[in-house]
Amino acid sequence: MRPDVASADPARFQSFLAFDFGLRRIGVASGTRLLGSAEPRGTVKGGDFDAIASLIKTWQPDALVIGVPRHPDGAPHEMTTKAQNFGRRLSGRYHLPVFEVDERYTSVEAESQGAHDVDAAAAALILEQFFREHP
Asked: How far is CA 58 from CA 35, 41, 130, in A?
């Protein structure tokens, strides 16, 4: 991420789009700090930046949040790097702050809640976790 984004205070931003990154699918959710909750907004094909641009135009977020997967012990793995690269691409393309959230087990939690679109539900869980971590 750009240095000015990495040092940005997450508490000053109000509206967000969150992404549950995957190579084949990317779950999307939106939410606002005022409500402290997130709504699943569907799934886009992995790497479909035109679809992401359309979502950003529609929702006009102040900032973006991405889930970054890790091993159960917190150690990074191959997808950790890919998700972080995705975040850098978002920052560079859309000139919005991008914040990372440790997203271990969000897909499992979304499945256990019976989510119809697991990826979008996981993105909502990621954003709600961000709100809890950055009140």
From this structure: 19, 11, 21
In this predicted model, which residue has the larger pLDDT, 129 or 108? 129
Confidence of residue 102 (pLDDT cuts 50, 70, 90): very high
Q: Measuring CA to CA, which residue among 131, 81, 91, 104 is closest to residue 20?
A: 104
SS3 sequence of 23-51: CCEEEEEEEECCCCEEEEEEEEECCCHHH
**CA atoms of 64 and 91, how far apart (whole Å):** 8
In the sheet that holds 37-45, the strands lie side by side as 37-45, 25-32, 15-20, 63-68, 98-102
Name the region of 65 (left: φ>0; alpha: ψ -120 to 50; beta: rest).
beta
Helices (H), 1-135: 3-6, 49-59, 78-94, 106-112, 118-133
In eight-state DSSP terms, residue 13 is -
pLDDT at 113 over 50: yes
Lowest mean pLDDT among 54-63, 87-96, 110-119, 120-129: 110-119
